[in-house]
Backbone:
């Protein structure tokens, strides 16, 4: 920067000298000094190059800043990604009354789990089946078991090793919604997914 | 019939003048006249009056009177002065019976004023007296004008835990003496509340906590000896079965259970085998295990695409009724105790009623009680095993998880008919329904067999001496 100022200063002095030349003729009385013209020209060229260098340098600095920023952003994104994956894995699926079949709308939810399980070979999960309060208390233990098994079967049929998935049933003993209406019942007819092991560094393909 | 009623009315008028110490209000003959008309209709229950001599036996009288009322086998007669009518508390001879002439000795029940009680519509009179440190309970046959049976026993003090059961046992002997069939007063009912097993007398008294851990319990089920029960407990997402010994308050885990979800235990009638449901990834199936030697697991059903659960033995031990989802909806099935000859037990009214669950075979072997989905709620049904016909017993509110009393006519069940879930008892003969428990949240009841005498209550002195 200082060098650029010096160049500019010299340039302007040269220019002033030139302008002076336009006044009363120098005592030398000679034509304009060729050397002075060449020097001015050089100085002009120098200043152009200096400006260009400066622009390039600033562009480089900006690129570096953006690169650093992007790196920081992507690190945060990666961390956020773990939570996203975890939430995808924990997303519940729901069932119709007294049924254990996976509903077509829940296939996408389970497909996400399939890809997470494929991307994380050490990941092991547990599926628990739950029921609403309308059915028989004891029968619901069998129904919850069927719901958990049904969700597991979906994952296994999409290529996940059966030994990585445990199942259990709580019947209607652990309701999520405490109401006594269809809305609560629908929420309580569910399969829950939890991580047993290998869930510290979750990746998504 | 009519003439007998009129004669009773006339007799009452005569008696009123003949025995001034017993005071009846003026309108009493009218009421009793109606009452007598009911008593002598065929098939209607015999009238019964319970009399106590002195305030010392009032608490005993209250328990016995309630037991006999709850037996639903008698028409209880309340005397004009309410419950306060007492016999003379001394050992002086009671007013002599018309045809009595029986000598009255201390400690032996005297004759009662039979014509009076007969006129009041009583067929039986129970007389309760204290004699020294013993209690004498006499059952009088009013028509025969004599004592049919006198029971002399030394009851534990009312503050001791065995007291109520000892009095209940007297009630059962009275029912036996009067009608030839034992009562069910000396029984208790197990149930689950707040995830713990509790126990309560059949008359709603004496509730106590019996399960001993903080884990959630389900499905208590009595052993036929009345000393133990089996139940299930959640343990780390699995279900483990235990056999709990009531006298010792100890429990023993049932072998091989707890690895999977094991639930709905049910004893065989000889008490050696426990049948139960086991849920695995293959589905739910019925297994048996020898609980005497804690060994020898056997698998009785292979469901694959259906669930099989909730086994209940026939009282002869040869068959097991259970629930199967093989028709697509849970329904009642039956098989031989070794798992062969599996077939549907209760006909299904497709489209009208839904899933059937929670069966329990009656102690007399003739019926299976269960609940069934009707219009989106549950109702208690009874199946006649031989005729294979079902009958709906309840219709008000949601009614579920029925369990038989040992007399095969009373059933305890869970109902929300008053707004919250609690235990109720229905008498199948009369249709009478009474609440067992006033607290909410009770479920999964199991009615005991007739309970054995606990060693603490001393039954020896003069017990059950008969005439």
Residues:
């Amino acid at each position: 920067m200082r060098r650029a100022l010096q160049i500019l200063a010299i340039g302007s002095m040269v220019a002033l000298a030139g302008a002076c030349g336009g006044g009363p003729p120098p005592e030398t009385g000679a034509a304009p000094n060729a050397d002075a013209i060449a020097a001015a020209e050089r100085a002009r060229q120098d200043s152009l190059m200096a400006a260009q260098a400066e622009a390039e340098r600033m562009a480089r600095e900006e690129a570096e800043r953006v690169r650093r920023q992007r790196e920081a952003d992507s690190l945060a994104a990666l961390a956020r990604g773990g939570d996203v994956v975890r939430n995808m894995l924990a997303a519940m699926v729901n069932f119709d009354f007294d049924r254990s079949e996976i509903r077509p709308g829940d296939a996408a939810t389970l497909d996400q789990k399939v890809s997470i399980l494929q991307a994380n070979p050490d990941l092991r999960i547990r599926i628990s089946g739950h029921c609403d309060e309308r059915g028989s208390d004891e029968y619901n233990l069998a129904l919850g078991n069927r719901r958990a098994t049904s969700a597991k079967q979906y994952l296994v049929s999409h290529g996940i090793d059966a030994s990585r998935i445990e199942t259990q049933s709580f019947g209607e003993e652990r309701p999520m919604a405490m109401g006594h209406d269809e809305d609560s019942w629908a929420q309580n007819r569910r399969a829950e997914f939890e991580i047993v092991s290998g869930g510290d560094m979750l990746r998504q393909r | 019939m009519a003439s007998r009623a009129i004669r009773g009315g006339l007799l009452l008028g005569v008696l009123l003048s003949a025995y001034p110490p017993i005071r009846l209000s003026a309108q009493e003959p009218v009421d009793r006249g109606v009452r007598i008309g009911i008593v002598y209709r065929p098939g209607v229950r015999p009238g019964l009056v319970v009399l106590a001599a002195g305030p010392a036996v009032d608490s005993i009288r209250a328990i016995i009177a309630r037991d006999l009322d709850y037996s639903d086998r008698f028409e209880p007669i309340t005397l004009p002065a309410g419950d306060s009518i007492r016999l003379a508390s001394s050992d002086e001879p009671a007013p002599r019976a018309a045809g009595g002439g029986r000598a009255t000795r201390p400690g032996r029940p005297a004759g009662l004023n039979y014509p009076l009680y007969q006129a009041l519509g009583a067929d039986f009179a129970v007389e309760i007296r204290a004699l020294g440190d013993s209690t004498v309970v006499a059952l009088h046959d009013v028509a025969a004008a004599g004592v049919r049976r006198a029971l002399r026993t030394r009851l534990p003090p009312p503050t001791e835990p065995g007291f109520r059961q000892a009095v209940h046992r007297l009630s059962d002997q009275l029912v036996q003496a009067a009608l030839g069939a034992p009562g069910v007063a000396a029984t208790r009912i197990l149930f689950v509340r707040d995830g713990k097993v509790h126990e309560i007398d059949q008359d709603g008294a004496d509730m106590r906590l019996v399960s001993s851990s903080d884990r959630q319990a389900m499905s208590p089920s009595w052993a036929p000896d009345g000393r133990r029960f089996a139940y299930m407990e959640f343990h780390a997402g699995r279900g483990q079965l235990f056999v709990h010994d009531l006298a010792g308050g100890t429990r023993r885990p049932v072998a091989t259970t707890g690895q999977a979800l094991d639930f709905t235990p049910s004893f065989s009638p000889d008490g050696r085998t426990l049948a139960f449901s086991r849920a695995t990834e293959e589905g739910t199936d019925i297994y048996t295990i020898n609980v005497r030697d804690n060994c020898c697991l056997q698998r009785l059903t292979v469901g694959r695409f259906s669930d099989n659960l909730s086994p209940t033995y026939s009282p002869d031990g040869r068959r097991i009724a259970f629930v199967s989802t093989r028709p697509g909806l849970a329904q009642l099935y039956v098989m031989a105790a070794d798992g062969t000859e599996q077939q549907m037990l209760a006909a299904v009214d497709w489209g009208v009623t839904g899933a059937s669950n929670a069966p329990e075979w009656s102690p007399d072997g003739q019926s299976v009680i269960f609940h069934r989905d009707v219009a989106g709620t549950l109702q208690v049904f009874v199946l006649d095993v031989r005729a294979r016909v079902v009958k709906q017993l309840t219709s008000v509110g949601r009614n579920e998880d029925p369990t038989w009393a040992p007399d095969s006519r009373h059933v305890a069940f869970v109902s929300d008919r008053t707004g919250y879930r609690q235990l109720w008892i229905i008498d199948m003969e009369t249709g009478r329904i009474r609440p067992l428990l006033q607290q909410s949240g009770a479920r999964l009841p199991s009615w005991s067999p007739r309970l054995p005498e606990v060693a603490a209550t001393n039954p020896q002195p003069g017990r059950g001496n008969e005439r």
User: Anything to note?
Assistant: Confidence is low (pLDDT under 50) at residues 8-26 of chain A. The longest strand of chain A covers residues 190-197. The helical segments of chain A are 2-21, 34-90, 107-119, 139-157, 182-188. Residues 91-197 of chain A form a domain with the 60s Ribosomal Protein L30; Chain: A; fold (CATH 3.30.1330.60).
